[in-house]
Design a protein that fits this description.
The complex is a heterodimer of chains A (364) and B (72). Chain A is an all-alpha fold and 364 residues long. Chain A is 62% helix and 2% strand. Chain B is of the alpha+beta class and 72 residues long. In chain B, α1 packs parallel to α2. The chains are: A mainly alpha (364), B alpha+beta (72).
Chain lengths: 364, 72
């Protein structure tokens, strides 16, 4: 397919369609078995993958989520089809790895990434309002750094093999999922770990999950869908393009939840959520700032990885490492509240982000 | 009419748009040439230009990159 063909998804109607499709698919994934108000949360599912491969051992969050693999592989397919597979990278890779770690840790204090902020709101979880405010505040701090010249430096064109690394990694994980499927009542199947209870034990059928991930990956690559970018571009440029996708996702998921009887408004007893408003806010300040400094929400980083962007790939690996630390060190929250070291994680995470922000401001 | 050049290749989102927007604001007219290395940034810079009342006079592929010319 030629690049000369107009990219219909990179139009206002296109991004609204993509956001709406993600919202509807999320609602049906939840109905088909995925955890409530989580459906297709990138941070939660990254954490579940970290559990499935045993780099953390929190028993309730272990499942090799096919949606995440599909995000990268669907984007990879779209990038190949439209001649946008262009391996590049080398822009402060270790800094991006650290940003990924901190983003995941902040998201797990809130219990969700920006996608889940939207999905929790669409399911009626009032606690997500604190998360949304935190996300906006974190992204706003990021825009202050951009105005001061924040820049992680230029990347370079890389070999095609470098760009294939993350898609191949995802193919490898998919092979493991096919080789070692869940066995009822067993916490381990081959090298993979599975949850017997909790959110990790809630999942839609493999075929649906994978197809949903591939489809969303393909569409999001074409439309450049990004939840953090939606907020950033409104603050920085008064540009609404990505925000239309953000709002479409919220509205479509809300309507789908109403239709499927999955809308339960309130603050108490919401699925996989806690009611500590301050820490819901602060967790997302940290995550939002980290996503802003890295240039994309976790979904967007996966889609960029599929295009061969190894800097986004490094960030995605940082997310996995952050998930492992968050559970191994007691930083992640649970429905009972924040983890024993959640407060310290937020304070240290914010301090590291501010250091990265200040240290990379270059006055032109 | 002086033509400004910006090389935004290798820069990640939102840097290409930031550089282009800054140059458009500072110039308040004229011609601006910007080099970009990915399709998403090409779309974003085009949108930013239109919202600021600039015209995308040229948008072409050069080797593996893109060259945009914005005018006002």
């Amino acid at each position: 397919m030629s690049r000369a063909v107009k990219n219909i998804f990179a139009t206002t109607l296109g991004i609204i369609a993509v956001g709406s499709i993600i919202g509807v698919v999320a609602g049906f994934l939840q109905q088909a078995g995925n955890p409530a108000n989580m459906a297709i949360c990138v941070a939660c599912f990254g954490r579940d993958i970290a559990g499935a491969i045993g780099i953390h051992r929190a028993g309730v969050v272990q499942y090799l989520r096919p949606e995440i693999l599909g995000f990268v592989l669907g984007s990879f397919a779209a990038a190949l089809a439209f001649k946008e597979f262009k391996p590049s990278g080398g822009s402060a890779p270790v800094t991006r790895f650290v940003l990924g770690m901190i983003a995941m840790i902040g998201a797990l204090v809130f219990l969700g990434c920006p996608w889940r902020v939207i999905l929790r709101l669409a399911g009626g979880d009032g606690n997500a309002l604190f998360g949304l405010a935190g996300l906006a505040a974190g992204v706003w701090i990021g825009t202050l750094f951009f105005k001061k010249g924040f820049n992680l430096g230029r990347g370079q064109v890389q070999s095609w093999s470098a760009g294939l690394m993350i898609p191949l990694l995802m193919l490898g994980l998919l092979a493991l999922r096919l080789l070692y499927p869940p066995v009822p009542g067993e916490a381990q199947s081959g090298v993979l770990w599975y949850s017997l209870s909790g959110p990790g034990a809630a999942y839609a059928p493999l075929g649906f999950s994978l197809a949903a991930g591939l489809g969303i990956g393909f569409l999001a690559q074409r439309s450049r869908f990004c939840t953090m970018g939606a907020i950033r571009d409104v603050i920085l440029f008064r540009q609404m393009y990505l925000m239309y996708g953000f709002i479409a996702l919220l509205v479509a998921a809300f309507i789908t939840n109403l239709f499927l009887g999955q809308f339960n408004p309130g603050f108490e007893g919401q699925p996989v959520a806690h009611t500590m408003g301050l820490w819901n806010f602060m967790g997302m300040v940290v995550a939002g700032l980290a996503f802003a400094l890295a240039g994309g929400c976790p979904g967007r980083q996966l889609f960029l990885s599929g295009e061969g962007n190894t800097d986004a790939g490094i960030f995605a690996l940082g997310l996995l490492a952050g998930a492992a630390l968050a559970h191994n060190f007691g930083l992640a929250s649970s429905p009972a509240g924040i983890g024993p070291h959640g407060m310290a994680a937020v304070i240290i995470g914010l301090a590291v982000l501010l250091f990265i922000g200040v240290a990379n401001c270059k006055k032109s | 009419m002086a033509r400004q050049h910006i090389d935004a290749r290798g820069l990640s989102c939102p840097q290409p748009v930031l550089l282009a927007a800054k140059a458009m604001d500072a110039a308040d007219g004229g011609e601006l040439e910007i080099l970009i290395d990915n399709e998403a940034s090409r779309e974003n810079v085009g949108r930013a230009a239109q919202s600021k009342g600039w015209t995308v006079a040229a948008s072409e592929e050069v080797d593996q990159d893109f060259r945009l010319v914005l005018t006002k």
